[in-house]
Design a protein that fits this description.
single chain, mainly alpha, Four Helix Bundle (Hemerythrin (Met), subunit A), 5 helices, 0% strand
Length: 133
């Protein structure tokens, strides 16, 4: 399998990350949430493509799931970390290093899920507060 599809998914991820950063700066929570959803979807797709790219026997050895580090809980900081990981994944993939590319995408997905979790909690609190009145 060619890595072009994975690279395309990572490129699309970066585009949505840029859109999300712009929406965050503007304070547009709906656009930010939508762009974060697209980032997560592209990362999931990339991880699926990694599975297809590796032979069954290689999956267990090369696709180890790294433990994420704890980072500052600021949404902006997490988004920067995700962008950094996706860029690193692209670089590793262009060098043919599927294992390191996969681990970077796996971590990026973990962090973007934390952002989504934070957004969901914020919406739940907002809905709960509006129901009290």
């Amino acid at each position: 399998m060619s890595f072009n599809k994975i690279l395309k998914a990572l490129s699309s991820t970066l585009t949505y990350l840029d859109k999300a950063a712009s929406a965050l700066r503007k304070g547009d929570e709906n656009a930010f949430s939508n762009d974060v959803w697209h980032v997560a979807a592209e990362l999931e797709y990339a991880l699926f493509l990694f599975l297809l790219a590796l032979e069954e026997s290689e999956r267990n050895v090369q696709m180890l799931k790294p433990s994420p580090e704890t980072i500052n809980p600021s949404v902006g900081d997490v988004m920067l970390k995700v962008k950094e990981l996706v860029e690193e994944a692209q670089n590793f993939l262009m060098k043919g290093d599927l294992s390191n590319a996969h681990s970077r995408v796996y971590l990026a997905r973990h962090y973007i899920f934390k952002v989504q979790e934070s957004l969901d909690k914020k919406k739940t609190r907002a809905c709960g507060a509006s129901r009290k009145y």
